[in-house]
Amino acid sequence: MPKATETVLEIDLGALEHNYRFLRSRLNPETKFLGVVKAFAYGSDADRVALTLQTLGIDYFAVAYVKEGVALRNAGITRPILVLHPQPCNFGELIKHCLEPSLYSPRILKTFLAVAVESAQNSYPVHLKFNTGLNRLGFWENDIDFIAEQLKGRKEIRVKSIFSHLAASEDLAEREFTLGQIASFKKIAEEIELKLDQKPFRHILNTSGILNYVEAQYDMVRSGIGLYGFGNNPKIDAHLRPMATLKTVISQIHRLEPGESVGYNRGYTSVGYRTTATLPLGHADGIGRQYGNGNTYVTVNGKKALIIGNVCMDMIMIDVTEIDCNEGDEVIIFGSDPTASYFASTAHTISYELLTGISQRVKRIFIDR
Question: Which residue segments constitute the domains of the chain, with CATH numbers given?
Fold first, then answer.
């Protein structure tokens, strides 16, 4: 791997392929695979990630918002794209770019149907999301009659799939709750197929669902964080490869005498003779103040260096007293050590938040497969 000369997010497309193939290997050959590439592909680069997965033969993509789907179309993505949380003001743009909406409430269904009628659509593909316990988005089971009534005799839209979202599939202590969600979804799917006289395909499993409840894979599964190298379980993480490595360099080294302080509000005071290094990234790049004041470490020349003082907008200071290093040396913020999961845990958060929070001003570089 090339040494960093500035702050970069290194994206390993070979790791992406490895993770995709590992997750695929757990499924039946005929099961479709949807890659979740919302939020800039979990903070990496949605265009390059999606193009790589498309080359590998992935069946579907999902984004949160219409704008993200339009960007993928403009980048050359031809696979179906499910928009998980579309807003009515964007329905025209959604149709223009052949994106497929998740319809999750009576209001959204009626509004999209009106737009489809107005634009003279014929069998436009839509997906119905049902709430089985996450209580975030989704129709309720008692909405089925309403849905059937709205769609009766309509040719403008076609229900391509029905789906739901597991709330705690990574937590085996919640197994009973998760099995209840799966059972509810099965019942809903059977009811709506009878009411619609159609057979949409089904999907409910997310990454942890694939790993823990593969018997409920139905016709398609959805994976986001697993593609990027995290399985919400140390045993599974051992089989995955983190795709993103955040690197930077040492800008300047300082020698502190006892009692000298570092950074804003004198967040760190030296208790002896110490050596610090200043790095060119900060909370504007996605490394928040919660990581400062000795809460976590970065890696310099293979050794751990604590982040000290308060994280600044564009700079972080680290303690390199016991490390042989020089200005210009490379620093690993997260990657293989520390991992994004560990780094995030020191601030009582999760890898998802850390990864998606890396600023777009950080340069992305790609390691090809």
Answer: 31-228 (3.20.20.10), 244-367 (2.40.37.10)
